[in-house]
Design brief:
The protein is mainly α and 601 residues long. It is 76% helix and 1% strand.
Length: 601
């Protein structure tokens, strides 16, 4: 039997899948915990007043930095993927990425100007090494069991959303209620736990993800029978120019705003130097893309054009969807009535307790099932993983006790309050954290994903264009809800007291839109793109996502300028209208794209 055969991994199973899948499940869960936990706090920390421990930045500057950060996270995946494939292997890439992210979160917890910037840089490179290589290990593990792969990715996706949910819930709570450094630091602690348990359990993957050797490269080359169409020196030169201009722009954009113009790499190009640089990069890239497409046969070329079309739509989706940690979090913090009393206070405390305890109990049961298979062979890794769960249970229970005490439903002595590090309150109050609303995305995904999966498997499964159209319409509906809720806010107002229901509806509709679009895009890249082009087109796809992320920051930068002149509602109506236009464009183009796809569904 081949040492890496599928049969080897299925000798030890949990829920019908290899135990190794659940090692990846928990590693990814803690990584997403750290990523989303920190991300939920970044805008709030940057815009908070000095007295509240923040930096008191303008929303424009905070959004500029946020957009560049999340954009660079996706661009860095191309670098991490290259190093993993060619030099260090998937496993070392995951460990290096996790270590860099651990150091990044620790650096941010120090909260000095230098440490925050250093932390963001480490997080960008850490995500780049980590993000693309976890799924690569799963793909290898299931290469001879394709019928099990969908189920594996579903379970893995649950780990992603569980991590995002608890990261935002707990890091967000500590950051807002206790101190920013506690939220940033907690994210790093769980990334460290995830790294340790992965490293100590790595033998469970056999030879998958090891550092490439001469023999393994030769074997891979022998299996690759596709005809090559290498880049010319001129094309490589254009790629280099585009990369340098794009990277300098994404760094210079926030730097020039934050420094008030004293730092401006493109200042020699005049007042519009930043715009000239990025437009030049995009024009050169589009020319390169056209030149590359013309080198392929008609069928291949048309399929690649279809992928490029979906990548274009993806830019707008992420630019609007990623208002969640940006303008929507600002709306939750400054313009939403988050104070509850009476029956609403009781209702929230019960619901919050259920959505905290029930998912955590289910994941703890999965952990126990894994331990039954792996504890003897990977004892230290199991102890470290169980320690992380003891900590997360402790913080979750402490959070719930604090909330019930603050709301007046629980009486605690002064000695108990001191032991639990809970501040004494004289007036009962229930205040929903601004970051809490972001947890709804993960909660709705876990609840609604099975329903959408059934829809896609039915005879009513819509075309790719229709899915994009529906997804964009749902984004528009979400933005229309918050726009309607904000209609009473006067232009220039810095605070308001809008009902929470509008934000809840936003996250419901946006999650439904995400389920229509997010899983579809990468699926069509793999279906439509020839193997010899897959790396380049995945690069194009992640470039589109990165542009969308930066676009989210650019939208967020303008929230104050638009709100001061026309009102906050106008800003969200603009995003709703853009979503509708993109959705209609996708549907109108259905016949054209269907022809270009040549029967691929």
């Amino acid at each position: 039997m081949n040492e890496n055969s599928t049969d080897q991994f299925f000798k030890s199973t949990v829920l019908g899948h290899p135990s190794g899948l659940f090692v990846l499940f928990f590693t990814e869960m803690w990584e997403r915990f750290s990523f989303y936990g920190m991300r939920s706090l970044l805008i709030l920390f940057l815009t908070a007043s000095f007295t509240d421990g923040g930096w008191e930045w303008t929303r424009e500057n905070a959004s500029a930095l946020f957009g560049s950060y999340v954009g660079l996270v996706y661009l860095s995946t191309m670098l991490g993927g290259y190093f993993a494939d060619k030099i260090i292997g998937f496993r070392w890439a995951v460990v290096v990425g996790a270590l860099l992210m651990t150091l990044g979160h620790a650096s941010m917890a120090i909260e000095t100007q230098f440490s925050i910037y250093l932390g963001l840089v480490l997080l960008v490179f850490g995500n780049g090494f980590f993000k693309p290589n976890m799924t690569s290990i799963i793909s290898e593990m299931y290469k001879d069991r394709p019928e099990k792969k969908d189920g594996a990715y579903t379970l893995f996706y649950m780990g992603v959303n569980a991590g995002a949910f608890f990261g935002i819930l707990l890091c967000g709570y500590l950051g807002e209620k206790v101190g920013w450094s506690y939220g940033f630091g907690l994210a790093g602690i769980f990334m460290f736990f995830g790294m340790l348990q992965f490293w100590l359990s790595q033998n469970i993957f056999g030879d998958i993800g090891l550092k490439p050797t001469v023999e393994s490269k030769a074997k891979s080359d022998a299996l690759d029978t596709d005809k090559r169409n290498p880049f010319t020196k001129i094309e490589l030169g254009v790629i280099f120019i585009c990369s340098v201009l794009g990277l300098l722009w994404i760094l210079n954009d926030p730097a020039s705003k934050i420094s008030g113009g004293s730092i401006n790499i493109f200042g020699f190009l005049g007042e519009n130097g930043n715009n000239i640089a990025i437009v030049t990069a995009l024009v050169l890239f589009l020319i390169l893309l056209v030149v590359r497409l013309l080198k392929y046969s008609q069928i291949t070329r048309e399929k690649l054009i279809a992928v490029t079309f979906f990548a274009f739509l993806t830019i707008f989706f992420w630019a609007i969807f990623e208002q969640s940690p940006n303008s929507l979090t600002i709306f939750a913090n400054d313009y939403t009535n988050r104070i509850l009393d009476g029956n609403w206070s009781t209702f929230f405390l019960i619901i919050n307790s259920l959505i905290t305890v029930v998912p955590l109990a289910i994941i703890t049961w999965v952990l126990y099932s894994l331990f039954k298979q792996t504890f003897k062979s990977y004892t230290l890794a199991s102890i470290i993983l169980s320690t992380s769960f003891v900590i997360v249970w402790t913080i979750a229970i402490w959070m719930l006790i604090k909330d019930f005490y603050s709301a007046g439903y629980l009486t605690l002595s002064d000695a108990t309050l001191n032991r639990l590090k809970i501040d004494k309150v004289t007036e009962a109050i229930t205040e929903v954290p601004a970051t809490w609303f972001s947890t709804l995305n993960s909660l709705f995904i876990i609840s609604l994903a099975p329903l959408f999966s059934k829809w896609w498997e039915s005879k009513y499964n819509p075309s790719a264009n229709m899915k994009y159209g529906i997804g964009m319409f749902l984004l528009a509906l979400g933005m229309a809800c918050v726009a309607f809720g904000a209609m009473g806010i006067e232009p220039g107002a810095k605070t308001a007291s809008v009902s929470m229901i509008w934000l809840i509806l936003v996250y419901l509709f946006h999650t439904m839109g995400e389920l229509c679009i997010s899983p579809v895009g990468l699926s069509y890249v793999s279906k439509l793109v020839p193997a010899r082009m897959i790396a380049f087109m995945f690069g194009v796809w992640y470039l589109a996502v990165a542009i969308g992320m930066k676009g989210a920051g650019k939208f967020g930068e303008n929230i104050d300028a638009i709100a001061n002149e026309h009102g906050l509602s106008y800003f969200f109506w603009m995003l709703a209208i853009i979503s509708i236009i993109v959705g209609l464009f996708s549907i109108v183009m259905s016949p054209v794209i269907k022809k270009l796809m040549h029967g691929v569904r």
